[in-house]
Amino acid sequence: MAGVEVKDNEPVRLDVYIAKPDEGQVGSNDFGEFAGSLLDLARLRTERRSRKIILNLGITYLVKQIGAEKCEKLLVSLVPRTGAMVVDGVHIENFKAE
């Protein structure tokens, strides 16, 4: 993810799911396959500062598992579970390891 802005004194949890575009439906209860979570516990501070967290997930195995290796697009669902946050965006990089 490009960046998730969270407050220091508030815990947050965000779950990430991946699906092939032809199998996922916006608004359905099935978000796709679970890719990972962002979990940040609250800091004990009295001031209300915010900071940005970057979440990197390795999804190569998951993409193969759902048969999406040749897909040009993926459906990414961000499901906030706890706390308030602002997500700057989602970025997927495709590179080959040598």
Q: Report the radius of gyration as a whole number of Å.
A: 15 Å
What's the helix count?
Answer: 1
- Determine the mean pLDDT: 80
Query: Could you say how many structural domains there are in total?
Result: 1
Number of strands: 6
Give the overall form: elongated
Percent of residues in β-strands: 35-45%
Give unreliable regions as ranges. none
Give the structural class. Answer: mainly beta
Order of helices and strands: EEEEHEE
Oligomer: single chain
Distance between the termini: 24 Å
Helical content class: under 10%
Report the major sheet.
Answer: 3 strands, antiparallel
Tell me the strand order in the biggest sheet. Answer: 4-1-6
Domain Polyphenol oxidase C-terminal: 2-93
GO molecular function: catechol oxidase activity
Protein name: Polyphenol oxidase C-terminal domain-containing protein
InterPro entries: Polyphenol_oxidase_C (IPR022740)
